[in-house]
Fold:
Amino acid sequence: MALKAGRDKRETTVASLGCNMKRDFAHPPRDTRLAKRSAADSMGVLAYSMASPRLTSLAAFFILLLSAFRSHAADAAAYVISDSTTGFILEEYHADKKLPIASLTKIATAMVVLDWSEASNSDLGQMATVPPEAAQIAAGGGAGLQPGISCSLRDLLYAALMQSDNVAALTLADHVGRAIGGNGAPVDNFVVQMNALARTKGMKNTKFLNPHGLDNLERSVPYSSAEDLAKLTAYAMANSAFRFYVSQRERKIAVSSPAGGQSAYLLRNTNELLGVNSIDGVKTGTTTRAGQCLIISCGKPPDSRQEGETHIITPRRLNVVVLNAPNRFPLAQSLLARGWQLYDSWAGAGRPAKGWKAPRL
Structure:
């Protein structure tokens, strides 16, 4: 799969799980020859002969559907369904396996920028200039950012998170890396902060090597795991600014040429599931090594209950991480639907941190 530098490769939407399983659940042949009996007896035999095959076919359908779900889930190298509020994992497959994650890296990039902006009271409206090093990843695609072009940090965040622009991520790292300082080059200083963020969030199977996630430019391959990315996503989705960035389907940004000319560019989100079943984030990622990766998030109205004089409100949000899945969009959507069923069972048991076992659904 060829990687278009500057952004994730866009894929056409795959048919949803179940809809692409065109099977002929034909009823078994029935002997329609009825013996000469009374009308009542004949109707009774006919009713039975019609109902039995239907029940058999219905049972077979659900068995095949369950088998298809498991087969499609196994198509992913790893996945996690987790509660965003507590981090509790409702279901997982190879959750701690170290894998390349492509542009899912940009979630960490964005959070380092947002954390720095808040800690230093720095304005995201300040302009950043695309560095010369961006030339090697700026060929084609993306928002057309080239060395020397200037753009606000805010618009660069939109470009990196919505359209997965690699040059935008590199420019953010270069600009903020200079502000942070350190012993290395600006981008290297920034990546140090990305890995520091990973450590503080307990991401033990993660190593970031750059701010964009391209894995063909490094001597070794950057990696993370589905479980670690669930932790990162929970942290990111708790930030209102981040939630807004990743929830936008389209956004116009402004760029300035070295000569001072102004132009606008319309960004389009690469997450094809935005707005489907209340999905409001978060990020796609694709490289040849990483395959097709996706993280989605979905919130529901919070649970509210009264305990004595205390009114308890519990947020409800699920995050789904899918790594290296050729059918990432339909798979993530089906995992989310299953996740809400598991969530209801877990919540009904009192949301225990340990000891809960997922029911067979």
